[in-house]
Amino acid sequence: MVQFATSTLADLTNYPVTAGTITASDNENFRNAVETAIINLNDAAQALASFQAGSAASESLRGSVWGDTSNASRAIWKGDPDGLGPDDEFLTRLEAYRISLATGGTATFKPSGIINVNTTSVSLSATTSATLQVYSVPANTLDANGKFLHVIAFGTKSGANAGMSLVPQLGAGVVTTHTSSTNITDWCIEFWIVRTGVGGQDCGSYIIYNRDDTTSTTLCDFASLTQDETAALNISIKCGSKHTSDVVSSEIMIVEYGGGS
C-alpha cells in the first residue's frame, strides 16, 4: 500500500435535486462521489495500517504522520507538527538512539543514558589478581562512529603491605594499568571508550586515590584498541597486582552509553 495524501479526503459535493426530479444523471453523479469517498477512506485506512511508509512523505501538511523507510531496516516515525513539512522524528523505544535532537543553535545531539549499574561488592583477599567488576556489552552497541561507553567505578583497599594496580579493559584490550602507593584506602576510576571506525576504539582513563602519594603512577592514560564491536565485549576492571595480605574491593560500577554522528 502506497502512502495516502490526506488532501484527497474531502466532503462530498452537494448534488441538489432540480425541478423536483432525480434524474439518472443526478443519481449517477452522487453514486460516483460516494464510491470515490469510500475508496479514499479505505485507502487512507490501509495506508495507516501499513504505517504510511515510504522513503519520502506524500505531502507536507500539519498533523501528518508517516514512517520513513529510508533509514536502515526499520522505519522512523515522522510528522509535521509545525506545518513546515513532515520532517520531525518521533522518539520511540527502538529508534531513539538513531535520532538527532535539536539545541537552541545548529548543533544536534543523540540521547544517552545508563545501561548498567552494578553495586555488588567484590573483594580480593589472598588472590593477588582477578576481575573486580565486569559488564558484557551486547553486540553492535557501538554500531556507529562516535558512539561511546563511559564507565565509572569506586572501591577500597585495606592493608598497607604494598601498592596495587587496577586495569580497565574492553574485551581483551587493555586501556591502561593504574598503580597505587602502599597506603591508599579508596579509589575511583573513570574511563571512556569511543568507536572511531569498524573494529577501532579510542580510550581514555584516569584514576583518583584518596591520598596524594608520589609513588602512585599512571594516573591518566590514552590508548587505541581494535576490538570487534559486532560481538559481545566485556567491559572489566581488573586488579592486576596486590599484596596477598591486602584486600582490594570494588563497590560500584556504572556504564553509560551515548554519542554517534
Descriptive overview:
The chain is mainly beta and 261 residues long. It folds into two domains: 104 residues, no CATH class; 147 residues, Sandwich (Jelly Rolls). 10% of the residues lie in helices and 40% in strands. It contains one helix and 18 strands. A hairpin with a 5-residue loop joins strand 5 and strand 6. The longest helix is centred in the N-terminal third of the chain and has 26 residues.
Please describe the topology of this protein.
Blueprint (H helix, E strand, L loop, with lengths): L23 H26 L3 E2 L10 E4 L7 E4 L8 E2 L11 E2 L5 E2 L3 E6 L3 E3 L5 E8 L9 E12 L6 E6 L2 E2 L3 E2 L6 E12 L2 E10 L10 E6 L7 E9 L5 E13 L2
Parallel strand pairs: 1-2
Antiparallel strand pairs: 2-3, 3-4, 5-6, 7-18, 8-18, 9-17, 10-14, 10-18, 11-12, 11-13, 11-17, 14-15, 15-16
